[in-house]
Design goal:
158 residues, mainly alpha, three-stranded antiparallel beta sheet, 61% helix, globular
Length: 158
């Protein structure tokens, strides 16, 4: 399997749409409005980074986004976040379209799904961990204001 084949598997829109669905479920567990549409582009970079994903899987339910931002071991990831967002933005859009065709969603200033899903129902251990990280990221994002998140992460590419 060459690098291009591997990239196609990792960025498969069906796989990414499930990651986004779990993220939105995590957001809705704390905020009925949903997530600011700009913030949806953070999901794929955070969840597909191995170190960050592992941290997200093992978060305390009371954690805030600072556990990642202030951790020195994520400095390289944080310094490249804007470039990663640009790289994954189109893939996120395609996955959102796929998700919208599979479940009822509303798009305006906020993105909201009608049907929440649980990572606990996933049988595959690897996927379950990824979905849990995505769900937990949704909970972290729901606890903070959009502008504060963008400032903390130094986002300028949304």
């Amino acid at each position: 399997m060459n690098a291009k084949d591997l990239e196609l598997l990792i960025y498969n829109p069906f796989h990414l749409s499930k990651i986004l669905h779990h993220f939105l479920s995590g957001v809705l567990s704390l905020d009925d409005k949903g997530v600011k549409s700009e913030l949806i582009y953070l999901v794929i970079p955070f969840v597909l980074d191995e170190k960050v994903c592992y941290k997200l899987q093992n978060l305390n339910i009371n954690s805030r986004l600072n556990v990642i931002i202030e951790n020195k071991s994520y400095e390289v990831f944080m310094s490249q976040l804007n470039e990663i967002i640009l790289y994954t933005k189109k893939k996120t859009k395609h996955s959102l379209i796929l998700l919208a065709s599979a479940t009822n969603m509303t798009f305006d200033d906020y993105i909201k799904i009608e049907e929440k899903i649980s990572f606990k129902k996933e049988d595959d251990k690897i996927l379950k961990d990824i979905y849990k990280a995505s769900y937990n990221l949704g909970m972290l994002i729901a606890k903070e204001d959009c502008i504060i998140i963008m400032k903390k992460l130094r986002i300028n590419q949304l």
